[in-house]
Amino acid sequence: MEFRNLKKQYQTLKSEIDSNMQEVLQNTNFISGRQVTELEEKLAKYVGVKHCISCANGTDALSLALMAWEIGPGDAVFVPDFTFFSSGEVVSFEGAEPVFVDVKEDTFNIDPAKLRQAVMKVAGEKKYRPKVIIAVDLFGQPAEYEEIRKIADEFGLFVLEDGAQGFGGEINGKKACSFGDISTTSFFPAKPLGCYGDGGAVFTDNDEWAALIGSYRIHGKGSYKYDNVRIGMNSRLDTLQAAVLLAKLHAFEQYEVSEVNRVAEKYTEELAAVVKTPIVLDGYLSSWAQYTIQLESREQRDGLQNYLKERGIPSMIYYPKAMHSQEAFAPFKGEESELSVTTGLCQKVLALPMHPYMEEDEVIQITTAIKEYIGK
Ligand SMILES: *Cc1c(COP(=O)(O)O)cnc(C)c1O
Questions:
Q1: pTM of the full predicted structure?
Q2: In 3-state terms, what secondary structure has residue 152?
Q3: Which among 270, 233, 276, 272 has a CA at the least distance from the CA of 361?
Q4: How does pLDDT run across 191-209, given as a tens digit for each residue?
Q5: Which atom of ligand 1 is nearest to the CA of 57?
Q6: Which residues are paired to 203 by β-bridges?
Q7: Å from CA of 185 to ligand 1 middle
Q8: In this structure, what is the dihedral angle of CA atoms 148, 170, 252, 317, given to the nearest 10 degrees?
Q9: 311 CA distance to ligand 1 centroid (A)?
Q10: Atom 6 of ligand 1, residue of closest alpha carbon
Q11: Which residue, 52, 105, 54, is CA-closest to 276?
């Protein structure tokens, strides 16, 4: 069994993906080909924002946003403690201070009440200037943007939506990657919309930031490539990746998001009485980057993972370590006790196989094994 069956997806979409890739090979327009612009236009339309600027990966996408806002030393950026390393790495990379905020146990996303406390604390201490909230749409579900926006407005902060896992999700019909002042995503192969290598994109309605990001991603270019007006980076999306994404976006819109929701519903139906299953808030739609259950303890979780492995069922631990306890951010300056939900989740979470091409009998095979292990 595959954790995320990219082989089956390729077999299903083979003719369109192959012909799109062949076209790039024939034209040899490997960098900044017309497919890149076409993809950017389609993605902006899909998300419902004015600008989409593609780039080399989801980490660069976050960096480009922080660069456009000139975030640097002395600035505080609020980041959930439970996320992939990139969400905080980019803050330190700009020389700013990541402030880790605990998440909610039932959604895995940043806890707005604790976010408010953290912002007030930093503002009161006057050591760092509060500047940005990076809200992550973890495992496919958008963060609580209505609450987050209130805090941002009250304290004059920017909201950066890290939609690397959230692409395709919604709140009341409004699409993920439209909730931040700037939003970003990743096209890493295993993300909800993945390419065949690394890729990413930045989304915004703001013309000035869009122009800046367009410049930063190509060596800080001015009116043309050899006119360089600022220090930037080399972060373009390859034409081949854009060609793959154009083929995949179609399937993503047509049925993949609804199919992962079908799989998630089946899992929850089978498992809700057995383990803690993930919650999707009212009016929210998840794109199910992961389907994550919670066990009672590390022993039970690790035991289940082994039990599944012996039966040929892959599972993953996202994430085994809180951001605040990553060595790269050491020494941790906050209060351990304020991040207890994340610390607990790291012991108890287990992500199950999840992708749009999963058959119902595969789900049943997995849930049956889990029920056997738990003994219910
Ligand atoms: C994957 C991921 C990123 C980084 O994306 P890359 O394309 O791998 O650089 C950032 N944030 C989150 C939450 C992610 O899951």
A1: 0.98
A2: helix
A3: 270
A4: 999 999 999 999 999 999 9
A5: 7
A6: 52, 183
A7: 7
A8: 50
A9: 30
A10: 58
A11: 105
